[in-house]
Inverse folding.
């Protein structure tokens, strides 16, 4: 009886060991493939960050696409960047989508501020509107991304786009001593 | 219990329609009686109540969660098509999610919990009350639709930035970009390490259980004997070597049985150790031969009965058999056969 | 008797045929005894070996396990006379030889005692409770066992076919005289008789009426299955015919060494200091008895050679009582002796 019990235990342990072994082998294989893929992608990501113009296919991983998009943004190819960002937003990776949209908004807003400093107001306005859309989209993906909130706030103060609320706002007592850049395109008077 | 909006409403609707149909005739009669008796119809007890929620301190991009408890009269169900869909409410407010979960269906009617999540996009310059407009709903019992209203909700939006930086600094300074970062490889490396470790342990356990070299706990006497017998193949007619080979195999039998195994013990031992039960006749033959060789002092005759090649074949089969782990026989079969003297 | 008239097959010598025929008789003998003594196959086999080796046996065992019945059945199957004496503390050597009593005419008379009464035909002499008798009685018995003769009425009386069976009471220790080592060494075997282990045998012994009346029971045993007068010659033939190979000689010596110096042989027993366990014994006479018994067993098994199994089958009975332990261990003698014999066979390689 005990011999039978011991034999059953041995058989059971054997099966258990086999199952664990198979599971472990599967995990190792899967993770190794992931690791190799990631290492290859990391080379591309680091290459793009180092300023090399490396091509990335549309069906690549969102992180890779984001690196490509960022490269395009920093190299003034906003139209191409917009396309890549669209591809990213169609993926499931909300973090990458938020990051890409945020960077796109940043690029546009920085460009608008640059234009404003060069007094090219008309060219700046559409950029600001697009930047605001990018930030809103960012926040839809990541409602707690504070940098996006902050930069959207800057963009909103450049162009306030809710006239009906602003009118209501006028009725309230003014507490702010100075208001700068609040009613774009209202620029400081006296300048050309 | 939460089902999709449509399926749960549809089922409610189906139930109420069926109930209405069952009650159709009495209803008509009842209406007549009601007119005659000048009594009002059933009192409408539908209600939509907002759950208490935080109404202050919302920044740009924050989510505003509006929850409402909806109670309907018996037989009534919400009309799915009339539920609000995620959309841009106005320039500064998006409805981004709507959830409807059914409450308990009681005799008093059905109840729902409606959750609507808005996102505030109003960039406030100073704290300011904002209104989420009332949301119309529609319920029906299959005959008469009823309109309901989720009341408006007022919250205070607030700025998180000074209007003018009081300590200087550039108010146009943007927060920095999120930089692309390479994949962190640590999780994969850790997973591979752990899995490899677990796999190695499982392999070790399997090696121990299967008795693989060099992890075997029990020695393999027949495998050892087989190696020791290997030179015998080169000298198949050498009688002293043959005798020595028989002794080698005897020692292996002793080690396998745990005591000195004599010819009379073979049958009982084969019954006791199921690994060798298939070989019991061959083993008995070996012992008979060995008897002739040693105690009958006729090694040459023994060699004819069990040639060297057969001896080696038996050793090989035994070495193979000792690695197996067959199911033990029931104890009744393993009765110790104590030979009479 | 069909076996006796069986014509010898060509190429087989007369002695071999005779041995084969006798073997059939020996097995018949065993069967005859076995049908009245249930559940004692091992004891019967050992006593059969003793009969065909012409060795005296000391029986040990509790009261009422059937020793007397067994011996009477054997005596009947062997044929020849059977005598029995009860050992008591006041038993004198002369009481075995002479029967002193007052005759019918009122005068004292000296008649032949239990030993002499049946003359030279005496084949089995059963000494009951030998340890109750005095050492003087033991001495007489030992001479009888060794020389098969005694002096009485001024002449030598020979008992050429005599085999002595003695019984030792192990329950009582008071007013007993333990047999000296020299006496025990002369016994061919010490056989322990226990109540049968087999449940069916025990049930039959207790409930079947035929076991309740010994005399009727014994009448079922066929008389003279073997001829007691031929046993001596047969025993010599057996000893000559069964050969011992060099391998079995080495093996026997290995066993001897193992029981004489168990520590050197690598034997370990629980709770025993092996270096001082064995104080002496395992005499050469014992070894020769062992080989004699093994030869008979080999013959009974139908072999013409001794194999280790033969030694193992008789070893405890022939050897254990010849090994003398340190007094510390004498009290646990039975357990230790059994374990030592077992260990010897588990240790010494065969072949």
């Amino acid at each position: 009886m005990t011999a039978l019990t011991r034999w059953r235990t041995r058989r059971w342990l054997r099966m258990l060991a086999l199952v664990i072994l198979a599971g472990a082998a599967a995990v190792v294989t899967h993770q190794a493939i992931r690791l190799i893929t990631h290492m290859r992608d990391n080379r591309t990501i680091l290459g793009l960050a180092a300023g090399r113009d490396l091509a990335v296919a549309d069906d690549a991983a969102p992180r890779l696409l984001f690196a490509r998009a960022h490269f395009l943004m920093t190299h003034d190819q906003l139209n191409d960047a917009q396309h890549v960002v669209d591809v990213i937003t169609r993926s499931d990776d909300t973090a990458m989508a938020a990051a890409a949209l945020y960077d796109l908004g940043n690029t546009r807003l920085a460009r608008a501020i640059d234009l404003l400093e060069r007094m090219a107001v008309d060219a700046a306005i559409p950029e600001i509107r697009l930047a605001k859309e990018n930030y809103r989209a960012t926040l839809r993906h990541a409602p707690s991304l504070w940098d996006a909130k902050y930069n959207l706030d800057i963009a909103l103060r450049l162009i306030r786009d809710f006239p009906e609320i602003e009118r209501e706002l006028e009725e309230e007592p003014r507490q702010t001593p100075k208001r700068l850049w609040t009613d774009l395109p209202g620029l400081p008077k006296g300048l050309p | 219990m939460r089902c999709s909006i449509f399926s749960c409403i549809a089922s409610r609707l189906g139930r109420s329609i069926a109930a209405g149909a069952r009650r159709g005739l009495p209803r008509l009669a009842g209406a007549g009686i009601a007119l005659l008796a000048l009594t009002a119809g059933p009192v409408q007890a539908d209600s939509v109540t907002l759950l208490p929620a935080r109404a202050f301190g919302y920044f740009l991009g924050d989510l505003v969660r509006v929850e409402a408890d909806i109670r309907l009269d018996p037989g009534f169900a919400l009309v799915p098509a009339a539920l609000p869909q995620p959309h841009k409410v106005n320039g500064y407010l998006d409805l981004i999610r709507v959830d409807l979960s059914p409450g308990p269906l009681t005799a008093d009617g059905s109840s729902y919990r409606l959750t609507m999540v808005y996102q505030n996009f109003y960039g406030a310059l100073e704290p300011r009350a904002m209104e989420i407009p009332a949301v119309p709903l529609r319920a029906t019992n299959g005959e008469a639709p009823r309109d309901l209203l989720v009341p408006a909700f007022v919250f205070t939006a607030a700025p998180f930035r000074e209007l003018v930086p009081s300590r200087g600094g550039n108010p146009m300074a943007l927060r920095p970009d999120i930089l692309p970062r390479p994949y962190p490889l640590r999780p994969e490396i850790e997973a591979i390490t752990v899995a490899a470790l677990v796999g190695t342990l499982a392999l070790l356990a399997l090696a121990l259980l299967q008795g693989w070299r060099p992890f075997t706990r029990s020695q393999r006497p027949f495998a050892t004997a087989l190696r020791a017998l290997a030179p015998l193949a080169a000298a198949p007619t050498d009688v002293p070597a043959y005798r020595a080979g028989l002794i080698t195999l005897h020692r292996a039998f002793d080690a396998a049985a745990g005591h000195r195994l004599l010819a009379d013990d073979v049958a009982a031992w084969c019954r006791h150790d199921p690994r060798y039960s298939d070989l019991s006749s061959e083993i008995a033959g070996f012992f008979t031969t060995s008897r002739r060789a040693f105690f009958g002092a006729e090694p040459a005759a023994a060699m004819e009965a069990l040639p060297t090649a057969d001896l080696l074949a038996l050793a090989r089969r035994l070495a193979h058999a000792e690695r197996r782990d067959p199911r033990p026989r029931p104890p009744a079969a393993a009765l110790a056969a104590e030979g009479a003297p | 008797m069909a076996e006796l008239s069986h014509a010898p097959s060509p190429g087989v010598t007369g002695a071999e045929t005779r041995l084969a025929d006798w073997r059939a008789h020996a097995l018949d003998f065993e069967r005859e005894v076995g049908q009245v003594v249930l559940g004692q196959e091992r004891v019967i086999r050992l006593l059969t070996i003793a009969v065909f080796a012409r060795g005296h046996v000391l029986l040990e065992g509790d009261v009422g396990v059937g020793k007397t019945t067994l011996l009477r059945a054997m005596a009947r199957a062997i044929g020849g006379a059977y005598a029995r004496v009860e050992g008591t503390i006041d038993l004198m050597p002369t009481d075995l030889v002479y029967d002193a009593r007052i005759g019918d005419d009122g005068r004292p008379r000296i008649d032949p005692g239990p030993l002499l009464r049946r003359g030279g035909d005496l084949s089995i002499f059963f000494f009951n409770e030998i340890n109750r008798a005095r050492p003087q009685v033991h001495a007489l018995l030992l001479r009888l066992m060794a020389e098969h003769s005694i002096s009485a009425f001024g002449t030598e009386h020979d008992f050429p076919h005599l085999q002595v069976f003695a019984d030792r009471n192990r329950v009582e220790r008071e007013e007993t005289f333990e047999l000296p080592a020299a006496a025990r060494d002369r016994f061919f075997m010490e056989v322990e008789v226990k109540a049968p282990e087999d449940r069916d045998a025990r049930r039959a012994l207790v409930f079947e009426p035929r076991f309740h009346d010994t005399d009727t029971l014994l009448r079922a045993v066929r008389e003279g299955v073997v001829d007691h007068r031929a046993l001596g010659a047969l025993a010599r033939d057996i000893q000559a015919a069964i050969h011992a190979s060099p391998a079995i000689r080495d093996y026997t010596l290995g066993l001897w060494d193992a029981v004489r110096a168990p520590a050197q042989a690598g034997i370990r027993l629980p709770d025993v200091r092996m270096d001082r366990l064995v104080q002496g014994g395992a005499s050469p006479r014992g070894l020769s008895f062992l080989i004699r018994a093994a030869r008979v067993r080999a013959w009974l098994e139908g072999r013409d050679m001794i194999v280790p199994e033969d030694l193992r089958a008789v070893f405890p009975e022939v050897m254990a009582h010849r090994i003398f332990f340190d007094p510390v261990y004498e009290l646990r003698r039975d357990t230790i002796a059994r374990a030592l014999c077992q260990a010897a066979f588990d240790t010494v390689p065969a072949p």
Observations:
- Confidence is low (pLDDT under 50) at residues 1-12 of chain C.
- Chains C and A do not touch (no CB pair under 8 Å).
- The two ends of chain C are 39 Å apart (CA to CA).
- The first helix of chain C runs from residue 14 to 36.
